[in-house]
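Q: Here's a chain of 301 amino acids. Please give me its 3D structure as C-alpha cells.
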Amino acid sequence: MNRPEIPIPPLDGYRRGLILMALSILLFAGSSLIFTAAGRMPGISGWTLTVARGLLGLLIVGIFFWPRGHFQPTHLVTNPLLVVRGVLGGGNLTLLYITMLELGAGRAVVLNCTYPIFASILAAIFLKEKLRAVQLLWMGLAFFGLTLVTGLWEHGGGINGYYALGILSGFIAGCVIVVIRRLSRQEHTATIFSAQCTYALLVALGPTVAHPVMPTASAFGALVLGGVLVSFGQLSMTRAYLYLPVAQGSSMQLSLPVVTALGAVVFLGERFTLTEAAGAALIVFGCLQMVRAKQRPKVAA
C-alpha cells in the first residue's frame, strides 16, 4: 500500500532537505574515518564491512521503525522498484569496497562520486527534472576538484579493470539516486533503506562465511560504530531526496570527500598537498554554485 503523501510547504521542505543532506554528509564522513581505521585491524575486509553495514542497518530499522509501522518487509519482494533499489545498492557497495581495496580509498571515492552526473542526467530523462546547462558546468568543476583531491592526475590517470569497475559503481549509484527519488513518494525511508541492507547482505554474506575471520574486540567495536553512523547517514540522505531535486542533493554530496579529508587530517594524521587543497576549494565552490543555480528564479523577458 502506497504511503499517503503529506503536503509540505515548499520553503520548509527545502530547508528540511538541506539539513538532512548536510547531516548525512557528516555521518558518512564519520563512518568512512572509522572504517578506514578499522581496515588497519586484523579480521576486517571489504566483505566484512558490507555485512556489518547491512546487519546494523536492518537492526536500526527493526528497533526504531518497524514497531511504528513504517517498515514494510513484504514490499522488499513485492515492489519491483524496491527490488531494483536493493540489487543496485548492494552491487554498488560491493564494487565500492572492491575498488577501495585495489585502488585505495581516494581513487575509489572519486570514481564512485561521478554519480551526480549520471543521476542528474537520468533524472532529467526519466523524472522530467529541469537541468540547466550552468548546473552541468558547476558540477563538472566540482568533479574536476575531486580529481585533484584524490591525486588522479598525479598518478597518470591510467585506466585498468578496477578503474572501469569504479566508474561502473558511479553509474550504478546514479541509478540508485533516481530510483530513491521515485520511491520516496511511495515508500517510507526505512523500507527504502532496508532494501539496500537486505540485498547487500545477500551479496556479501557468502564470501564472508566462506572465509570466516573473527575480528578483535576493538575492530568489532569500530564496525558497530561505523555501521550505525553510515546507517543513519543513509536514512538521512534518503529522506532528504523527498524534498530536494536529484541534481541539488547529489551535488551537495560532492562535498563528502572534502569533509572526509579534513577529518582524516584531524583524527588520522593524514597530510594533503596544495593541489589537493585547491581541489577541495573547487568542490565547495562548485557545490555552492550548483545549489544557487537550482534555486535562482528565471528572469522574465
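Q: Can you summarize the key feature?
A: The mean pLDDT is 80.
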